[in-house]
Amino acid sequence: MKYQNRYVEILSTTSTFGKRIAEIRILSTGEVRCVPEADLEIPDTTVSVNELAFKAMAARIRNEVKTQIMLAPFESNIVPLPHQILALEKVMSGQFLRFLMADEVGMGKTIETGLVLKELKLRGVVKRALIIVPKSAMLQWKQELKKHFNENFHIYDTDYINTLTRTFTRLEADNEINIWTQHNFLIVPMDALKPVEGRQGWNREKVAEHNRYRIQSVLDADFDLLVIDECHKVGGSNAGVGRYQMADILCSAIPNVMLLSATPHRGKSDHFRRILRLLDNDAFAGEGAPTIHELEPYVVRTEKRQAIDYTGKLLFNKRLTETIEVKYDTVRHRKQQRLYEAVSQYVISGFNLARQTRNTSYGFVMILFQRLMSSSTQAILEAMQGRAERLSGERGSLNATNLLAGMTDSDYVEQLELDFEAHLNSMVAEAEAGYATELEQLQGLVRDARDCLATETDAKVEFLMDKLATLKRAENNPDLKFLLFTEFTSTQSMLRRVLTEQGGYVCEAINGSMAFEQRIDALKKFKESAQILVSTDAAGESLNMQFAHIVINFDMPWNPMVVEQRIGRVDRIGQPYEVLALNLLLDNSIDRRVYEVIETKLTQIMTEMGIDKTSDVLDSTLETGRLSQLYLTSLLNPSRFEAESETWLEDIKEKLRDYQSTEGVLPILTSVAITTEKADAVRYSPLPNWLETLTKHYLKTKAIPYTYTTAGVSFRFPGRNEQIYTYDVKEGLNNPIPEVLSLQHEIVQTILADAVPCSDGQPIPRVQLNTGKSAAGWWSLWQLMVKNEFEEQQIIYPLFCTPDGDRYAAFAQDIWSKLSTEIDYLKGVGVIEGEAAKDVMSRQSTLAEETLADKYADMEATMTANTEIIRLNKERAFSFQERQLARVGIENIRQARLLRLQRERAAWQANFDQARQIIPDLRCLLMLELT
Question: Would you tell me how many other CB atoms lie within 10 Å of the CB of residue 622?
Answer without folding.
Answer: 19
